[in-house]
Amino acid sequence: MASGLAGKWILESSEKFDEYMTVLGVNIITRTMAKAAVPTQEIRVNGDEWYIKTSTTFKTTEITFKIGEEFEETTADGRKVKTTCTIDGNTLIQDQKGTFDSVLKRELKDGKMVMVLTVQDVVCTRVYKPTE
Ligand code: DKA
After folding, report:
1. Mean pLDDT rounded to a whole number for the chain
2. What is the 3-state secondary structure (H, E, C) of the chain?
């Protein structure tokens, strides 16, 4: 179940994050800080209502949403996107529509949260482990 994603997570590994941010038009200074950051994510689930707080030393974002309902999201790099989140099995799918469409999937795998971020032909994978 996707609600198993609830909890506190910390980044363990990351692949192709720089490529992902480059396609999104993120400048090199922000990319450098973002690559060096070790984010934590706090996820709370209450029925269909979700809360995700992503914290780093240089930027914190919070989103609150209902499954299937579009909302306005400001991403960590300042893009304004229209986002709809859905669930497919144990995966939360965050579909962002904007200048660049991107999909962020969070899946529980072997006790870790595997995040797969796609924009155009770039697929970035970020693995989070529980904080405790
Ligand atoms: C994550 O939560 C990745 C979130 C990607 C945000 C887009 C790029 C932000 C650059 C500051 O691990």
Report:
1. 97
2. CHHHHCEEEEEEEEECHHHHHHHCCCCHHHHHHHHHCCCEEEEEEECCEEEEEEECCCCEEEEEEECCCCEEEECCCCCEEEEEEEEECCEEEEEEECCCCEEEEEEEECCEEEEEEEECCEEEEEEEEECC
pLDDT of residue 132 exceeding 80, the answer is no
Please state the pTM of the whole predicted model.
0.96
> What residue spans define the domains of the chain?
2-130
pLDDT tens, residue by residue, 81-115: 999 999 999 999 999 999 999 999 999 999 999 99
Ligand 1 centroid from CA 132, angstroms: 22
Instruction: From the CA of 102, give the closest atom in ligand 1.
Output: 7
39 lines ligand 1 (CB under 6 A): yes
Tell whether ligand 1 has an atom less than 6 A from the beta carbon of residue 54. Answer: yes
Report which protein residue has its CA nearest ligand 1's atom 10. Answer: 77
Superfamily holding 2-130: Calycin beta-barrel core domain (2.40.128.20)
